[in-house]
Amino acid sequence: MVIENTFTGEYLYSIDAKDRVNIPSKFRNALTPKNKNIFYITRGMDQCIVAYPLEEWKKVQDGLRNLSSASKVYRSFIRSITRYAAQVKFDKQGRIQLTQVLKNYAQLEKEVTIIGMVNKIELWNPDILNELEKTSLRIDPEEYKDLADKIIL
Amino acid sequence: MVIENTFTGEYLYSIDAKDRVNIPSKFRNALTPKNKNIFYITRGMDQCIVAYPLEEWKKVQDGLRNLSSASKVYRSFIRSITRYAAQVKFDKQGRIQLTQVLKNYAQLEKEVTIIGMVNKIELWNPDILNELEKTSLRIDPEEYKDLADKIIL
DNA sequence: GATAATTACCCACCGCTACCCACAATGTTA
DNA sequence: TAACATTGTGGGTAGCGGTGGGTAATTATC
């Protein structure tokens, strides 16, 4: 636990009968007390569940709050995010409970691959993730280069 | 709760024979005492009912007050909102009572999907909502991406 | 003013979830 | 190597939350 509120690495965990998933201890240990053991989970842009620590989620919400409700697109956008957003607090064992909707959306069953994405966490169906890696990621190494330039890797 | 007066998540609830709808406990718990268990319900921009907590409703009204009444469009706009607005207080079980007009407008029957929209709440006929999402989501994935970039999802 | 109807308040059931305890597997330290 | 700590996983249970329904109070109608 070196850098606060920062998540890296990949883990293969299991979902139990009560739809509970363990948050890797390395991730939990990286959380500052301000997050109060709370995550917000919602739909990702890809077919996965995204989990934000409380402090990160607040930033997202502030962004949403400032979008005017006058625009139809904005309304629809806000809805598509918050609709699936749920606040979850992990128990003494460090597990969070998934909602049925999100579990369906990401097509999760017995196993989950949990990926650290710097300021957020992604939960994937292992098969879907592997399939995606095989196809879409291999396609455009050019885009990777562009990104690498931007971030000064 | 953690983030005050802020609502997220989706819930499928039922309307009983007396036209009562339960407000999800997570929403009620997010309310500050200043709201005095009071909501204002009115017509949404879409075909749904919108519920504002008292404190949020005050802001809406201030906004309306500042719209000049000189313009015909403005007057009509204000009328369309305030006309259907009703103050409702939830009972000890946390239920509010819907007005007949609003129930008709949103075409609610037995079931309601309740969506947290950050600072307000929407009540939808489940079928209508799903149909709408199916269409509007398909229309502009590009605009969605732009928005996602803005908010740094 | 009597009766009917609608609303407000209260009580009761029941399923789910939040919380707790237990245990196995792995890693760590003396 | 043994003792201990940490971490992932399974399961039991009490309390809360959603739902239905009953009764008193208030309003409406004639």
Topology:
The structure is a homodimer of 153-residue chains.
Chain A: E1 10-14, E2 20-22, H1 25-30, E3 38-43, E4 49-53, H2 54-65, H3 72-82, E5 86-89, E6 95-97, H4 100-105, E7 111-117, E8 120-124, H5 126-139, H6 141-151
Antiparallel strand pairs in A: 1-7, 2-6, 3-4, 3-5, 4-8, 7-8
The structure holds a DNA duplex (30 and 30 nucleotides).
Explain how this protein is built.
2 copies of one chain form a homodimer. Chain A is an alpha+beta fold and 153 residues long. Chain A has one domain: Chemotaxis protein chec (3-Layer(aba) Sandwich). In chain A, 39% of the residues lie in helices and 25% in strands. Chain A has 6 helices and 8 strands, in the order E-E-H-E-E-H-H-E-E-H-E-E-H-H. In chain A, the strands form 2 sheets. Chain A has a 6-stranded antiparallel β-sheet. In chain A, a hairpin with a 2-residue loop joins strand 7 (111-117) and strand 8 (120-124). The first copy, chain A, starts with 9 loop residues before the first strand and ends with a helix. The mean pLDDT of chain A is 86. The structure holds a DNA duplex (30 and 30 nucleotides).
